[in-house]
Structure formats: structure tokens, C-alpha cells
Amino acid sequence: MRRGVLLVVVGIMVVLAGCAGAVPGDSTPGESTPENNTESVATTNGTVEVHYINVGQSVSTLIIEPDGETMLVDTGHYNDDGEYVIDYLQRHDITRIDHLVTSHNDADHIGGNAAIIDYYETEADGVGAVYDPGIAASTQTYGEYLDAIEEHDVTLYETREGDSLAFGAVTVDVLGPPEPYLENEARNENSIVLKLTYGETSFLLSGDAEDDQEAYLVERYGEQLQSTVLKAGHHGSASSSSEAFLDAVQPEAVVVSSAYDSQYGHPNDEVLQRLSDRSIPTYWTATHGDIVLVSDGSAVSVQTQAAAPTDPLALRDGDAVEPGTTGAVTERDRLGGAGTGAIDSGGSDDSIEADDKTSTGNATLAVAEVNADAEGDDRENLNDEYIVFENTGDDTLDVSGWTVADDAGHTYTIPDGVTIGPEATLTLRTGSGTGTETELYWGSGSPIWNNNGDTVIVTTDDGERVVEERY
């Protein structure tokens, strides 16, 4: 237990209590890391929600475990004083923050700490405890944060590698910062790194960890870093999300939190190329808006406000979603479980047969086959990525002007004069070529269909959705 650690900042003293697997009231705290946590996967009951809030050039992540206990990791930028985060929490009826985690004390991560502590301690049901890596900053924002802790007598824990936070049915392992600190106590390189595990699903939150801390994590934990979803370190900076780190984590999806017109160029093109090289679907708060991941312990539902590209190299093709934009989220993909089990990664034989059929008049359109994983490199063999439609009705089906779309919002319009005869098929290939009566070409320069699962959406020329086939 690290007790009695003293900080003196802007004229006030705050004692950082040690955190070794404890929250206030725990009588038998203990250390827990992925390497010594040998319990079998726990039976899950209910869902865990992970909300990546759109806060512009900043980050804030809300986690709600099955029994309603809450954890908030970072609180947005100092420019808006936590306004976007507080509004979001209020809209989602969050009346208490049980765990407020500060990944590190840069002003763009603790911008709303003081306002949130003040609000929840005076107008709601309080803040259970605050967790901090223990490295001070000489900023007004940091001073106000400590003032709020002192004023409302909120317990503050210095939190380091080997600690774990008691969080209901969710296992929370603290993988960083180590002791002693890295790189002369640089704040980014000593971020609190959390791995949250629920059943067979997991989420890695790496703060602003850069090359040194990522290298430490890879050396220290190796394959134990493997997680279903990774929040890209340092807003998608080139100094984070290294090849070795991505290969250790092996995420099925990555979330980037930064501004649409980031003055730092986040997410960096080098990072997007690394993600693309590994065919990792990428969600960006700047174009997808608020991103909510819901885990039932075996699969993760990916829900976003806006449909936008998830191909890392096409990420900037999406339209900007301003921070604070309200509106419901819609499921765009599923990770793990049935969401990725339908398609194997072995090559051109990786196709599925679709049973669902949707009728239009006396003709019936069905998705007969999806070949999402082309032979070899998808990007170099685009015409081996294709969808096969079948008319299983008795009449010829005129599909002129109909649109085909995926979860990410890519859209193809079928040319005029295209029909599908009874029991006939029409193949739509992703790449380029000359169309025939039985084959069409999307004309895309990059893959469309997500190898890890996607949705084929067909809409008639008058706006009626006639097929919504998830694979």
C-alpha cells in the first residue's frame, strides 16, 4: 500500500492514498495483474457499456458495469471545462461517478475534473474515489482539480502497475505506470493503462502512452495485452500504436479520439497505415460521433451516432460530427461471438450462405453469398471481394437505381436497366471492370466489406429498405 505520498501544488497539500486493488471500504486489498490472475473466465450476466464520448481534441470514456456501477476515465479538454462530458452524463442519467480515473495530468485530459467533482458532490450523488498516476503538473487546470478534491474531501489514490480496481463483474487491471516511473516522469509515458475484462471480451485504455511505455508493456505483458478493442494511444499520434504494440494487442477494432481538424494532424497517417496493414476497423469520434460498445461477455456490439468509413485509410472521408452533438447511436458491427465467427480468415473460400430473403412484389431478392475476404491481400485483389444477390421469386426483378451499402456508409448505385431474372444471380464485385448482365463492379479503390462482419443493406430507388443482411 502506497500511503502517505505527499504532493504540494499551487499552495495546497493532497495526500495520495495507495491503491492496491482497493476502493474505499475494501478491507483486504491485493494486487492483480493479467499474469497472476489465473481464474477461469467468469460467467457473465448482463452487459457492460463502454462510451467513448466525442469531446474533440481530447478524450473521455465512461464505463457502466452490469449492476450500474460507473467509471469515468478522463474528462475532456480544459477549453470547455468538462461541459461536453457533464452534458453527456446528464443525458444518460448518470447520477454518481463511482470511480474517476485520471490517465495523466495533462490539461486536455483533466479539463473537466474540477467541474465534474463539484457537480457530482453538490448536485448529484457524489464521486466515490479518484485515481491518479501521481505525477504533478504546473497548470491552473491541475490546481483546480486538486482544489476540488480537497474542498469536497474526495479520496484520492495514487494508482500504479499491479493495482486493480474493484468494479463489479468487470475485472480491471492496472498495467501502468510502473515503479519507478519511465522517462524521467514524463506524463504521457506514465499514463494509467487499464485493461477491462468482461467474460471473453476486453478493452484496453492506454491514455497517452507513447513508444517507451508501449515498449515496456509489450516486454512486460506480451500476449497478455490481447484485447477485443483498443483505444489508440495519444489521440492517434505517430508516437503511439506502434507495430509491436498492435501485434501484441491484436485488437478487433480501434477507437481514436481526436478533433476532426486536429492541429496536430491526429490521427497520424503512419498510424492509419499500420492499422490498415492489419485490416483493423477503426472508429473515430470526429466522424462517428459518440461511440458506444456493449459487451454481453461473448460479443461486442459497436454502436455509433454516424455511419462513417471504418477503413483506416478512408477515415477522413467521413463528415465531421461536432462535439456535443446529440442523437441516438445505431449498431454498425459486432465483434467476437457470432459477429466474427461467420467468416474465417483463410482466403477465397471464405464465403457464407445467407438464408434471409426479402420480397418485393412477386420477386424476391436474397443475399446468396458474401465473400468478404479476398484471396491474398484484399487491397490487391478487390474483385475477389464480392456479394452475390439472387432473385428467388417467379418474376423478373428490376433493380435499376437501387443502392447497396455497408455499415460504414459506403454506397453503390445500381445502373439503369439492370434486372435479375427468376432464380438468376447478380454478382457485385468491389473493384473495377466492365459490367455484364450477371456482374457489376463497385469501382472502389479499397476493400468495402469488413472481414470481421458487416451488414449488406439494399434500398430501392424510392427509399424502401428491402434487404438488411448481417454476416
Task: Write a brief structural summary.
By secondary structure, this protein is an alpha+beta fold.
How would you characterize this protein structure?
Helices cover 14% and strands 30% of the residues. The protein is an alpha+beta fold and 471 residues long. The strands form five sheets. The protein has an eleven-stranded mixed beta sheet with strand order 1-2-8-7-6-5-4-3-16-17-18. α2 (113-122) runs parallel beside α3 (140-152). The longest helix is centred in the N-terminal third of the chain and has 13 residues, at 140-152. The chain is elongated and about 75 Å long. The model is unreliable at 1-15, 19-31, 36-41 and 338-362 (pLDDT under 50).
Give the biggest sheet.
11 strands, mixed
For the largest sheet, list the strands in their spatial order: 1-2-8-7-6-5-4-3-16-17-18
Strand content is 25-35%
Principal-axis shape: elongated
Radius of gyration: 24 Å
Contiguous helical run count: 8
Report how far apart the termini are. Answer: 49 Å
Mean pLDDT: 84
Helix residue percentage: 10-25%
Show unreliable segments.
1-15, 19-31, 36-41, 338-362
Number of strands: 30
Give descriptors for this structure.
disordered N terminus; 30 strands
Topology:
Blueprint: E1 5-9, E2 12-19, E3 48-52, E4 61-64, E5 70-73, H1 83-91, E6 97-101, H2 113-122, E7 127-132, H3 140-152, E8 156-159, E9 164-167, E10 170-176, E11 193-198, E12 201-205, H4 211-221, E13 229-231, H5 243-249, E14 253-256, H6 269-277, E15 282-284, H7 285-288, E16 291-295, E17 299-304, E18 330-336, H8 337-341, E19 351-353, E20 357-360, E21 363-371, E22 386-391, E23 397-398, E24 403-405, E25 411-413, E26 419-420, E27 425-429, E28 439-441, E29 455-459, E30 465-470
Helix pairs in contact: 2-3
